[in-house]
User: Which sequence fits this backbone?
């Protein structure tokens, strides 16, 4: 009998319940969209913040103190400098958090004479190098991806392992009146001997930074010139990281002071400090440091945006919750006569409540499922429009939305049900 | 006259006699408009608020002598000239630097002197221009302290010093030597880690370069910095202001993303909220089928009924919209305080916008169901009574 009432009310009375279902669906879709965006916003904004450049630098452990002013090295001892072997660099993409390593670029620096009285810092690097790591995966690494703010007048150097090509900083180009396509004559002083190299200027770098006073060559070329085969002086790494919290702060002070459990938790979270720790683990003899300007600021901005989205989601939930519950209130109030009739033919209060709860729950599920589908659509619209990639759909959202829809629909029906149950059957049926 | 009185009485009664339904509709409008108004207030402020937040990345402009300048130096007065070109409330901070090579005595070991980069600067500006510096100990208290020094972490490690130690610094070219107390050690992750910092005036004295600086960093708020920079560059000689593209262009990109994200989110919430509010209004009006039938049976024209329902909806929507705006303004402040630690500015435009939106929505939402039942035969709806 109970089931039959339910079935009848859903088949016969579906039209009058359509509005309730639509309202629940819209509310649920709003909640779904905001939940999905909110859960994914950290990753998305983190990726956007990568345009600020690398947040980790890897340098060889060294006793000497770099003494550089305006790119010119004042350190008397330059011979026994320490270097990182180039062949170790792909290992950075093989640490525990390898998927969070977005990009990297190695650097080797030397000085050269442009003319009699003009010295310039020359940097060897990867521009857009294809790297294959032992797992077989291939990646494109280099400054082209790492320094997204560089404006190149002319062309980027493609791969260009040994070719005599160069990108020249704007200041250098202005001082020597160079244009893309010109030839640049560099005199290196290597162990007392002058090595001459002619390179073709491929492009001019406008970066609003120190790069403008430097000349960039393919890494292999500079290694060959300087006789530092397979050696690099610095690697810049761009990694997706989790904002620093108390645990990360303590770990940064001294990872050995953590308990085993804390250490594991820290190691398995993508804090910038655990990523630098893992890089130091895979490459011997290096120090990996966080670039605080990027790493710390990233954390601050990420936390702000997450909080903002959380509050906006909360607002959306309140709005959809109220929408659903107010429509449920009116729907139940509308059916006072039916409740009166049920009671008149002998139904107990409990029976009426059970009937309504089941019916409303079914409405909640129906509206919730519809709304979930619609919400996924909204979320992917936001993802595509803003970030150019879809918002990842988390299955976790589905049950949350269903439960929320049902609870909110029920909450909205409580007070009108209580009013309706208190009424005498005769009173509502008198007409 | 009588007609108007009757009309007013009917509208008044409609509110008075149906308190619970009116309350529900009113509540839906207030909350819906409140949420929309608060999100729009936040949305219009998001650019300025986020660009303030993005200043945590530090300086976005750099002032340096142009290529012709001798020794890459400029006078400190030239810095003041540039500073005056910015609005006070847009200039977050600025910090000049003078670089030189000095020798520092390593601790303990006999008399080993190591070359280090000596930087003269203003420490009171560090918080604004380099908010990401991590300081152990303290930075120098003011611009006139001349017996203290702040050293980078790498330099501290390699020279063997700690906070509170005394370090001897000498400059070969001028033959000057100074004993300084280390008041703080900074960690930055860039070249500053291996440099040592003193007050600008002390560095100028030690290096024998009075009133000279090499470079100055600016942290400035606002969009279109590059056109502003070009304008300033036209008015000065021998120096060049440049945007630090790494910071400035990334800031533009991130700001645009956040803005368009908020825009879409607010639009979707707007749409959904309006639908929720209007479905609520629609059910409440649909309920009144019998009332409409009765009125028609008593001789009311369709237009009379529609006018009456519209008036009711407009009153409800208007009051609800204003109350909702008030609630929304409070909500916006709550968001502003918790996310940005500052108030969201009051925008007069949002008041009439919420009012009109609320009136429109409630009128449209009530007119649709009324239009649907208004042609109904009174006998059909009244048969049960």
Assistant:
């Amino acid at each position: 009998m109970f089931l039959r009432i339910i079935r009848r009310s859903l088949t016969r009375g579906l039209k009058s319940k359509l509005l309730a279902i639509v309202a629940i669906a819209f509310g649920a879709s709003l909640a779904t969209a905001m939940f999905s965006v909110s859960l994914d916003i950290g990753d998305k904004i983190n990726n956007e913040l990568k345009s600020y450049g690398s947040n980790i630098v890897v340098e060889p452990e060294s006793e000497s103190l770099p003494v550089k002013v305006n790119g010119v090295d004042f350190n008397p001892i330059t011979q026994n400098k320490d270097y990182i072997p180039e062949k170790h660099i792909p290992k950075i993409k093989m640490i525990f958090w390898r998927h969070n390593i977005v990009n990297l670029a190695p650097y080797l620096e030397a000085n050269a004479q442009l003319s009699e009285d003009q010295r310039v810092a020359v940097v060897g690097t990867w521009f857009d190098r294809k790297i294959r790591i032992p797992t077989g995966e291939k990646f494109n690494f280099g400054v082209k991806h790492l320094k997204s703010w560089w404006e190149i007048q002319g062309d980027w150097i493609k791969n260009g392992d040994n070719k005599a090509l160069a990108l020249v900083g704007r200041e250098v180009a202005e001082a020597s009146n160079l244009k893309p396509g010109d030839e640049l004559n560099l005199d290196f002083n290597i162990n007392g001997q002058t090595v001459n190299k002619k390179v073709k200027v491929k492009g001019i770098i406008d970066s609003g930074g120190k790069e403008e006073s430097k000349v960039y060559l393919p890494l292999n070329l500079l290694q060959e010139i300087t006789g530092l085969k397979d050696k690099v002086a610095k690697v810049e790494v761009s990694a997706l990281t989790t904002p620093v919290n108390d645990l990360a702060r303590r770990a940064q002070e001294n990872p050995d002071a953590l308990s085993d459990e804390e250490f594991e938790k820290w190691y398995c979270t993508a804090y910038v400090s655990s990523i630098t720790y893992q890089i130091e683990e895979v490459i011997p003899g290096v120090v990996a440091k966080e670039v605080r300007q990027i790493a710390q600021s990233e954390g601050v901005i990420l936390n702000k945006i997450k909080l903002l989205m959380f509050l906006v989601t909360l607002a959306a939930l309140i709005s959809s919750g109220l929408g659903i519950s107010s429509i449920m209130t009116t729907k139940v109030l509308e059916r006072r006569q039916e409740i009166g009739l049920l009671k008149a033919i002998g139904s107990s209060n409990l029976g009426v409540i059970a009937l309504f709860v089941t019916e409303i729950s079914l409405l909640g599920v129906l509206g919730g499922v519809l709304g979930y589908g619609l919400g996924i659509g909204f979320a992917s619209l936001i993802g595509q429009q803003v970030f150019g990639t879809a918002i990842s759909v988390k299955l976790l959202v589905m049950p949350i939305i269903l439960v929320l829809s049902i609870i909110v629909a029920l909450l909205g029906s409580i007070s009108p049900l209580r009013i309706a149950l208190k009424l005498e059957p005769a009173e509502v049926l008198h007409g | 006259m009588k007609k108007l009185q009757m009309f007013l009485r009917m509208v008044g009664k409609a509110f008075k006699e149906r308190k619970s339904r009116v309350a529900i509709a009113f509540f839906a409008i207030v909350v819906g408009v409140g949420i929309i108004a608060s999100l729009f207030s936040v949305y219009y402020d998001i650019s300025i608020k986020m660009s303030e937040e993005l200043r945590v990345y530090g300086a976005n402009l750099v002032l340096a002598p142009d290529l012709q300048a001798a020794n890459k130096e400029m006078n400190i007065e030239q810095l003041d000239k540039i500073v005056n070109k910015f609005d006070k409330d847009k200039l977050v901070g600025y910090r000049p630097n003078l670089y030189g090579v000095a020798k520092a005595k390593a601790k303990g070991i006999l008399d080993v002197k190591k070359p280090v980069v000596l930087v003269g600067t203003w420490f009171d500006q560090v918080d604004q221009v380099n908010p990401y510096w991590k300081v152990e100990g303290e930075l120098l208290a003011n611009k006139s302290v001349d017996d203290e020094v702040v050293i980078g972490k790498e330099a501290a490690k390699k020279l063997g010093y700690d906070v509170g130690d005394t370090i001897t610094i000498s400059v070969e070219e001028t033959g000057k030597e100074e004993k300084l107390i280390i008041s703080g050690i900074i960690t930055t992750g860039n070249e500053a880690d291996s440099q040592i910092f003193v007050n600008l005036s002390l560095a100028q004295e030690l290096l024998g370069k009075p009133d000279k600086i090499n470079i100055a960093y600016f942290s400035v708020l606002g969009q279109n910095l590059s056109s502003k920079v070009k304008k300033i560059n036209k008015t000065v000689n021998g120096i060049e202001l440049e945007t630090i593209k790494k910071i400035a262009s990334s800031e533009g990109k991130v700001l645009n993303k956040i803005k368009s994200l908020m825009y879409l989110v607010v639009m979707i919430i707007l749409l959904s909220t309006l639908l929720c509010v209007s479905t609520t209004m629609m059910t409440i009006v649909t309920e009144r089928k019998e009332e409409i039938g009765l009125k028609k049976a008593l001789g009311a024209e369709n237009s009379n009924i529609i006018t009456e329902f519209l008036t009711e909806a407009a009153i409800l929507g208007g009051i609800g919209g204003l109350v909702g705006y008030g609630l929304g303004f409070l909500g916006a402040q709550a968001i502003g305080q918790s996310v940005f630690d500052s108030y969201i500015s009051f925008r007069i435009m949002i008041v009439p916008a919420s009012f009109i939106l609320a009136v429109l929505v409630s009128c449209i939402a009530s007119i649709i169901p009324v239009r649907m039942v208004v042609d109904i035969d009174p006998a059909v709806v009244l048969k049960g009574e």
